[in-house]
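Table S5 (text form). Sequence records supplied for joint modeling of the two-component complex.
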Amino acid sequence: MIREQLHRIVFQPAARSATCSEGSSILEAARRAAVPLASVCGGKGTCGKCKVKASGSLGPLTTQELGHLRPEEIQAGYRLACQAQVQGAVEVEVPFTADVAYKTALPLLLSGLEPQPNVRKLYLDLPQPSLEDQRPDLERLRAALDCPFETGSLYTLRQFPAVLRQAEWHVTAVLVGDHLAALEGGDSRDRCYGIAFDLGTTTVAAYLVDLNSGQLLSAAASTNRQTTYGTDVMTRIERAHAGGLVELRRAARETLNELILEVCRDAGASPRQVYEAVLAGNTCMAHLFLGIDPHSIGVAPYVPTLVEALDLPARELGLDMAEGGNVHLLPAVAGFVGADTVADLLAAAPADDSRVRLLIDLGTNAEMVLMGRGRMLACAAAAGPAFEGARISCGMRAAPGAIDRVEMVDGRVKVHTLDDRPALGLAGSGLISAVASLRREGFINRRGRLQGKAGAELFASGQWGPELLLASASESGSGRAIVLSQHDISELLLAKAAIEAGFKVLLQESGIAVQAIEEVLIAGAFGNYVDKLDAITVGLIPSLPAEQVKGVGNAAGAGAVLALLALEKRRRAQEIARQIEYVELSAHLGFHEEFIQAMSFPEIA
Amino acid sequence: MIREQLHRIVFQPAARSATCSEGSSILEAARRAAVPLASVCGGKGTCGKCKVKASGSLGPLTTQELGHLRPEEIQAGYRLACQAQVQGAVEVEVPFTADVAYKTALPLLLSGLEPQPNVRKLYLDLPQPSLEDQRPDLERLRAALDCPFETGSLYTLRQFPAVLRQAEWHVTAVLVGDHLAALEGGDSRDRCYGIAFDLGTTTVAAYLVDLNSGQLLSAAASTNRQTTYGTDVMTRIERAHAGGLVELRRAARETLNELILEVCRDAGASPRQVYEAVLAGNTCMAHLFLGIDPHSIGVAPYVPTLVEALDLPARELGLDMAEGGNVHLLPAVAGFVGADTVADLLAAAPADDSRVRLLIDLGTNAEMVLMGRGRMLACAAAAGPAFEGARISCGMRAAPGAIDRVEMVDGRVKVHTLDDRPALGLAGSGLISAVASLRREGFINRRGRLQGKAGAELFASGQWGPELLLASASESGSGRAIVLSQHDISELLLAKAAIEAGFKVLLQESGIAVQAIEEVLIAGAFGNYVDKLDAITVGLIPSLPAEQVKGVGNAAGAGAVLALLALEKRRRAQEIARQIEYVELSAHLGFHEEFIQAMSFPEIA
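The corresponding structure-token record, covering 1210 residues in total, follows.
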């Protein structure tokens, strides 16, 4: 009896793992672990897209790998996932790309979910017409289908004459909800796709899903093209109101269309067979995508045009998917608590969990939801763009070369950059990490002032006062020194104060003590990269044992995928949106007081 | 006590009359008689559009009339309807324009109809938002309206922010069916329009209706722009199938859009406040307008893509009306029995009339419906283009200068032309009239051969044999002689045979004897211009006492208006379409036999 040798493969930074047999490829392991690695050639070793950094027991480099990897990459431990054979325990680091951050949280949520999608494909053998049976095409189809349907779309009707006759009356009818969305020649039931979007202010993520199996086929993310019109929501609102609405709408549409192409290409699917899209975005992004002037969201009393769920024809929104396809926009709650927050909860807050939990979606605007005791209270705090690197002296977005972690080892500063590239700037997670380390070492007081102590030599004298040198001009990838300034720390403190004051108000409103919180969920791709202890050290989240703090990654994307896969989840989203009680902080008497109190870092335990 | 002097005004050719008081204008009388006369200036005497030919007791010519009428017009009895004052009995001849033919049958049908349209306008005073009431605009609207509605259209949602705020929350919501079609600032309830179209192969007619009052505001007709791609249906089907579908669709759309502009301008209405359109067209025209390849209608077994009623967004069809408006396409029956026939019946065949009646819609394709004994049987016969002047040696469409009536007086030929212009050619009604006269005088035998008799000097020897001279080269307006040839008579006989064989088959199928027919309805604008006795003489319709033969004018247009005004009429249209049993003549064993038998003219009684 042969006992099969099984090995454990761990994928970082998602910390997801799989067990697989000797000789499997890393790509196969990634599939088992549901870590979506780009593989354009499907594992033939010809595209070179599945590059990962791997350590542990692996087979030798293949000819294909030698062809695709540069010597310095080989030296750094890079492999092609489809080629490298597992021979023992392996740790794989999936190189940082915007994509990955958006892919990591999904797969576990999907496992075990029985697809119950809004799309049905039905194969039909229709009787041919004759002078004795002159029924119109549509009537013939109606008679053959056992369910009534609406013929909403002209695009579908226009396909009828050619499709029916070329396919000699063997066709597949595609129903989206109770609408006939397409008619395809032959039996195409096995090709049935849907796409979920998380439309963020900065990053847009897309997930292609097989609606038959419920499997995630591919994922991609890209920068929202609207960022060229302003990185923050307020600038875009102003721009839209001042005549830029059409441009902003186009930019959003183009971003989505580019992603549709990308995820379909990666999975070998036709965009014309993507019959439904589910979209979770913050309220302002949704308005811009719909072409609705969001101006009133930006000024008191911050009223959106709509927050309810919408179903709209794909063609009306200009999405390059099935022409008769449907786009479902998840419901939102208020101007600054959007469908992304509802989707977060859909993914991360099961209806039957009655614990007291706090969900924080970190970003330029931090959305917070306090759940428990039969209620859901939400608010939004303007944290400012510090986490995205803006208004930070050497800030940058989380991209290769960004410092994402800072440690103090023996009085020396040690930095880690994304993709191990020479440092280019400081990411949001690096900012939090740096400030947390300095607090622990006593270099920053509770009020956030840099203060000398032993090791004061770490500080240089900068333009505006003392600065912590993170990378010297010679070490950095840009030829300029990368520093953390006093101002940067103040920015973080402001952001932290806004967030803390936010959840304190929610606690106040619901009469729950901070000690009663049983779990904290950090949502947003950003959450994956923030060290929980660092976040607790700087006071971004309440002080809880680490196991009660959970990074749920891009839960908004995951929620959108769930809503794509199961109609019941859409109903649940409506329920969540209705149940959430929105607390307007700007009108809240306690908020200002809490904010002032929160303008200091927590004591170091 | 002053006894008001009342006078009777009769309008021709519609034979519609009104009673009005001394000093009223002809235009006022036309309004009372519901004869829609074009009046762009609204009765000020400045546009000169309301020119009519009037005789009887009228006041003297006004300065405005002297400015607009040419001396020869004054001599011929022309007046401006808005200027000429009624002083006694007056007979008015409404000059021939394509429009008028399409206007004449409507008004009586509409009188007494309680509008129950699909469009509702509701005026709302909304509470202003505040930090204490941050409800989204849409939710605010929902709360204020007492009925649930769908927000189908993005265009409507896009209006929200500006309209609500500019109008300071005093708005009018427009519901079309259960869809919110528009949101307008202030109270605009008094401006609520709908448009009915009869989309014919050759002519397209449009009727603008006030949906509040049910009043017909204006009407217009124009040539279907598709005629430049072929005058008959078959040519267009081929053209569409060979890559011309998009052009043909555009041509139809442009024709309709031009008409929308025209009827709105005439009535001083905004096209953006036309919220619904109802369209009756033959099946092929409907397919082309929808952009559906009609090829399968043109070849056996003549199967259309669809015949059922459709509701589609106006913007999807490219109609220049309210962006959130709805277009309702009336149901059809088969490839050659279209929604126009259903609309004919809607207007001319009340559900409670149980008499045996035959409706004939004369045109290139003649549709026939036999009603009675609880059934409705329909067929379509290819009558050929003779009635529209094609394949007739001097044929032309019914337009100014066309001979529409031919009489034999004392052995001499007397012709009447439309608008009394010098003769340019022979209209379909003129062809029938000429052949009927010749039959009565014995110049044509039953087989349709011209035969000498006394008066043989009327015949000239033409290229293909003897010809009847209708206007000499010097009399005609074109400088060329206008004749009726042996070939023309044969063409008419063919058309007549097809039609007669058609209704004979319907009688056969339903087991009804021709003598049992209690009423014949002639539909189509053409029907207004055909003399009933002439039609009986040549055998186009069964021989019935004149009072049992009714020209119902453009009943299809009238039916479309009814469906626009009352939802109940749309339900009735569906009922009619379902009830009609279609008889396919090409597959019918008896048709060929009947056709052979019908290839002779009836005996002269």
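Note: Chain A touches chain B at residues 129-139, 151, 154, 157-158, 160-162, 165, 290-296, 300-308, 310, 312, 316-317, 334-335, 582, 584, 586-587 (CB under 8 Å).
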